Amino acid sequence: MSNSQYNKKSLLTVFLPDESAMIDLGAQLAAQAQPGTIIYLDGDLGAGKTTLVRGFLRACGHRGAVKSPTFTVVEPYALDYNKFYDYNQLQVDLKQNDRIDPLTISKTDKSDVNSKSRDGNKSLQKVYHFDLYRLEDPEELEYLGIRDYLDGQAIALIEWPAKGEGVLPKADVLIKITHQKQGRGVELRAESELGKAIVSRLALSL
Ligand SMILES: Nc1ncnc2c1ncn2[C@@H]1O[C@H](COP(=O)(O)OP(=O)(O)OP(=O)(O)O)[C@@H](O)[C@H]1O
Ligand SMILES: [Mg+2]
Question: Which domains does the chain show, CATH number per domain?
């Protein structure tokens, strides 16, 4: 994605001409995400928020469908922790190589890169995909038990975050997607130190 721009204020902007570019951005974001990362996804109906989440989840090993949790509010995913973070490591290792499709990488056998095994007790990385579009009051998130979901380790990708204002934890990365002709313009803004690390590394990988 050569048409990206990154500035000192931790704002990364990129134009994505089609759906596959959005999937790819989701995958690149997954490669930089850390336990506990909170990502807000802003954008009109049909902007491409769920598409980005799909790219994120597929890149870290999820093989099933990614449904939009419009009616259920939240869809939980438990991803293989080692697969998830070995994928991250692989991205770092491969950073010098240009244009390797991350979706292809995630399907390859990475056993040789797995030698740096992480904490054996943590075998799952929880990822929660929220869609708050139908939320009538942010308080509803309390009843859903959002505090139990977001325990500081789980990663959250949240569509329509404004509907949960006041109850949602603050974002590390705020993503705004807008329609631009046939494609989409995407702004990624860091909102925390963790967010800065993620966005600056993402800027290098695009
Ligand atoms: N960069 C892109 N360029 C063109 N089309 C795209 C791009 N990214 C996604 N799309 C398309 O936009 C459509 C809507 O995507 P998606 O369902 O992800 O939107 P959404 O923001 O989640 O909408 P909602 O608010 O209704 O949940 C899909 O058909 C998808 O293929
Ligand atoms: Mg959606």
Answer: 4-97+123-205 (3.40.50.300)
pLDDT tens-digit readout, 72-130: 999 999 988 776 666 666 555 555 444 434 443 333 333 333 323 344 445 788 999 99
Place of tokens 């990624």: 188
User: Does residue 128 contact residue 149 with C-beta atoms inside 8 Å?
Assistant: yes
CB 141 less than 6 A from any atom of ligand 1: no
- Atom of ligand 1 minimally distant from the CA of 18: 3
Alpha-carbon distances, residue 14 vs 54, 171, 177 (angstroms): 18, 20, 10
Whether 165 and 135 have beta carbons less than 8 Å apart is answered as no
Indicate if ligand 1 lies below 6 Å from the C-beta of 187.
Answer: no
Residues lying with their CB under 5 A of ligand 2, a single-atom ion: 49-50, 68
